[in-house]
Amino acid sequence: MTGEPDTFxxxxxxxxxxxxxxxxxxxxxxxxxxxxxxxGGSDEFFAQTRFTDLESLFALWGPETDWGFTTEPxxxxxxxSIPITQGKVLGGGSSTNGRTYVRGNRRNxxxxxxxxxxxxxxxxxxxxxxxxxxxxxxxxxYHGADGPLPLVDLPEPTPIAQAFVRSxxxxxxKGPADVNxxxxxxxxxxxxxxxxxxxxxxxSAAGAFVHPIMDRxxxxxxxxxxxxxxxxxxxxxxxxxxxxxxxxxxxxxxxREVIVSAGAFNTPKLLMLSGIGPADQLRSHGIDVVxxxxxxxxxxxxxxxxxxxxxxxxxxxxxxxxSEVNLFAYSNGEVLDDTPPxxxxxxxxxFFPEYGPIDAGITLVPTLSQPVSRGTVRLxxxxxxxxxxxxxxxxxxxxxxxxxxxxxxxxxxxxxxPFLDDMRxxxxxPGAGVTSRAELxxxxxxxxxxxxxxxxxxxxxxxDMAVVDAQxxxxxxxxxxxxxxxVMPNIVNANLHATxxxxxxxxxxxxxxxxxxx
Length: 518
Prior knowledge:
This protein has helices spanning 17-27, 44-48, 54-59, 106-114, 122-132, 159-170, 205-210, 263-273, 279-284, 398-415, 437-447, 497-515, and strands at 6-13, 34-37, 69-70, 83-84, 133-135, 149-153, 187-190, 192-193, 195-196, 201-202, 219-222, 226-233, 236-243, 249-260, 276-277, 291-292, 304-305, 308-312, 325-329, 343-348, 361-368, 376-378, 389-391, 424-429, 449-450, 480-482. The chain is α+β, with helices and mostly antiparallel strands. The strands form 7 sheets. Strands 7, 17, 18, 19, 20, 21, 24 and 25 form an 8-stranded antiparallel beta sheet that branches. Strands 1, 2, 11, 12, 13, 14 and 26 form a 7-stranded mixed beta sheet that branches. A 3-stranded mixed beta sheet has the order 5-6-8. A hairpin with a 4-residue loop joins strand 9 and strand 10. The longest helix has 19 residues, at 497-515. The model has no long low-confidence stretch (mean pLDDT 94).
């Protein structure tokens, strides 16, 4: 590194969903400069491809676009290690995910506020959800229509998706209704998604928030820029170091703030590499301790699913989304005033590749949407290019097995409906003969898989294990915030994309307000 480093008012590390939002909103103030650093490359391929088939979706996930992380062996999964897809590309997971847009339950956010995080209750965050949206259905109490992100209802549900919804309604579930509106409890809905009409193209955070601002003179984007360390001056973040696409170390200065938006794995990793985290772990890797924050890398939470699979006897129209239907249910059958539904079901007519031709099957996945298990993210070494040590500790609590067993029971009951008789073939997995608790438990532990929703590893709060405060400022530090999924105190009960966009919107507003420019 030679010469004087470039200086920006704000440096945003990570161009995933939250980072894209933050960079857009901060650079909307003309007299403050913003640098957005992304370790991955351009999203040009994703932006130009029309994703109306699953082969295209599965083809997205490769070493050029994914971090390639794998868990440590997990006891609750009978010692299996499993890959966790995380987008390494402009737009992050929003460029590679299944596009489903679900906000989570209002009780999730109210619980954040009740735990001492003022301003994060449902009514506080609802305006930030609406701010991002350009909802095709128009603006109302629950949706916005002036934001940059196209949001649509499922344009053409397949016949079998319609039959599944009828099955759910006949079983007593409400709907079909908008689970992002007034009610989610025991509700079935057709999926909303971030999709451009009429071409059915992916609407990523990069496309919505970054591409439109590339000509702003105060905004700079650098891709293939792997951030290796936050530069500290005492307790203040004053810049970052990164390796550029040529492998050359670079340093840039932040006149106001460094904002880390690198996700549930890379955010705690970067903090620890920079001397912020559990002191004993940092010292074990020869890293000088800047701030002893034991919560960094703890509290890892993720959703985990189990697959129910059937043969399909009637060919369906080409799929638009990986999941056409969402159903939220309580495993105990009762709506609880202070608890969100603990099961989310997602449904679509497709096979995962290991079961046969993609268009020859039906998949229904009960998902553990309010996990009890907590995992960790640790440094493997002081080498910034070494993968973190990821131990999610899935299904370490027996109660989670009970929830998934009930989810499988509900799923089989719904699929047995006469509404599906003309299109449903034989059960492929776990198989109609697998019925006992012991057999089903073995199937869960042998096959359960992540939904790729890691979060909560730098959580908000004011206790000893919290990493950031309700303003998303890292405790004990100046000029340093975390704005991404890792700040969630507890995971919401649905796919995370919508929530991460909201965190980006609210986080950017907090930054602007503290600077007097909001």
